[in-house]
Amino acid sequence: MQASQINEKRIKPMTTTVSPKLDNNQYESFTNRYDHGRSVRKMPVFHMNSFTIENLNKSIPITTSDALLTSSSNSLSSSLMTERNYSVIKESINHVLSPSNDNNKQCDPKLNCRLPKCFCPDVKPPCKFYILCEFNELMNGICFVISVGLKRKEIPQMILLTFDDAVNDVNFPLYQEIFDRQTKRTNPNGCPIKGTFFVSHEWTDYGKVQTLYARGHEIASHSITHGYGEKFSTKQWYREIAGQREILHRFAGIPRHEIRGMRAPFLQIGGDEQFQMLMDANMTYDSSISIFDNAPPYWPYTLDFGIQHDCMITPCPTRSYPGLWEIGLIMWHDLMGGGRCTMVNSCTSPTDEKSVFDLIMTNFKRHYDTNRAPFGLFYQSNWFTTAHHKAGFLRFIDEVLKLGDVYFVTNWQLLRWIQSPINLDRIDQFEPWQCQMNIKKQSECLVPNICHVRFQKGEKIGSRFFKTCQKCPNDYPWIDNVDQLMTVS
Ligand SMILES: [Zn+2]
């Protein structure tokens, strides 16, 4: 029985006992799971949802039992245990187990919120899922969904290094110093470390943004005017965020579909108006919500079932946004000030290089030594103008890269790993983190056009210089004329 045949067959419940067939390696890997908080020494243990399939073309109720199966006999001759088979039938299963949009229901990763499209807000890392089916000659069958957690040491510790605001001559040398190939800062798979830039419009040199993109960094939207969005309508959010995506596309030469995320200026989120805009604009993620709980820290999640943690800055989204990711900003312990801080800039400023290093390393360890939730280094570049800040920060990067299981990845690379988690020992085969994935079709912008353009800001009319390797516009792009930009293809 091939998994691909499942769609074509009518499958009815069986009463036979289903038992997994495991080789020694699988047996070992099923034991002592972090995420189920259960330690098993001799018998493999699975959390399972059993379900029966009658006709996958119809939505039918699923029998869920959340049973534990502890046998290791070999009676299941036709079990489908490979990832390949799983991926083939996963689509069918998702068809039956369609996520609920009702955020009053409980999010269940085995039942109504399944990867890669849905991931519950939780401190648990993502699981690998397997479908285990048994069929008889008449193609009657019963299937089980088995979730298999990863041990802490099987999870790469991802670090998200992000920078907000304009990119220009003032901060570009810093970015070169951190990322440039000459410094040989590479992840353990040999590829250069990468970051994510949330770019706001005013004072940005789009030639330099193009170069960052060409070097494999992720570019995301941080609005046009960099205003407080607390009371923005969905339309205003759209102009600010999708409008900035259009400007980045036009003047930094980045394909629109590769600008996937946003961060709200001042981390001032805008409730349902903002999140509805992200759905309307077909964007993949937001990274603006501060999360107070940090021990253990939350993993990024989708908003199918709402945010489900304390909301630090209002207004928060209240509705369901299926498939939209939130890469939350897990708050740090502020070692000097005693409270908590989200952006590193907002922590009490450490007085010397060692204090900077200790601040970052102490907060990093809470991720690294517990559930390996991605660790955020969220910055504005002006923090680095203090010499000991930069020295302590660079020392931290170089120290953690020696650990051998720490990866500096872009937000999109992070989401790709969550969507299909892969053990550290096979991470070299993980395509989204390969070096060639960072080579973009766009070239670096070394000699930009310097456009001298008219700039109307409200009633005031002036002019601006504007750098880009793309064609100069007639007017400086701004919130008042971005609608026009977005409608002209
Ligand atoms: Zn900002």
Overview of the structural elements:
- This protein is of the alpha/beta class and 489 residues long.
- It has three domains: 1-150, no CATH class; 153-438, TIM Barrel, CATH 3.20.20.370; 449-487, no CATH class.
- 23% of the residues lie in helices and 18% in strands.
- It contains ten helices and 19 strands.
- It has helices spanning 24-29, 83-96, 172-179, 206-214, 234-252, 271-280, 353-368, 387-401, 411-419, 482-487; strands at residues 46-51, 68-69, 128-135, 141-148, 157-164, 196-199, 218-221, 261-262, 285-286, 290-291, 301-303, 321-326, 329-330, 332-333, 340-341, 375-380, 406-408, 449-457, 460-468.
- Strands 5, 6, 7, 16 and 17 form a five-stranded parallel beta sheet that branches. The chain has a four-stranded antiparallel beta sheet with strand order 2-1-4-3.
- Helix 5 (234-252) crosses helix 6 (271-280) and helix 7 (353-368) runs parallel beside helix 8.
- It is globular.
- The protein starts with 23 loop residues before the first helix and ends with a helix.
- The model is unreliable at 1-103 (pLDDT under 50).
- It binds zinc ion.
What name does CATH use for the topology of the largest domain?
TIM Barrel
Percentage of residues in DSSP E strands: 15-25%
What separation lies between the terminal Cα atoms?
49 Å
Decide which structural class fits the backbone.
Answer: alpha/beta
What is the CATH architecture assignment of the largest domain? Alpha-Beta Barrel
Q: How is the biggest beta sheet arranged?
A: 5 strands, parallel
Rounded to the nearest angstrom, the radius of gyration is 24 Å
Number of strands: 19
- The CATH homologous superfamily of the largest domain is called Glycoside hydrolase/deacetylase
Low-confidence stretches: 1-103
The averaged pLDDT comes out at 80
Shape assignment:
globular
Bound heterogens, unique: zinc ion
CATH class of the largest domain: Alpha Beta
Number of domains: 3
**Count of individual helical segments:** 10
SSE run: HEEHEEEHEHEHEHEEEEEEEHEHEHEEH
Question: What helical percentage do the residues reach?
Answer: 10-25%
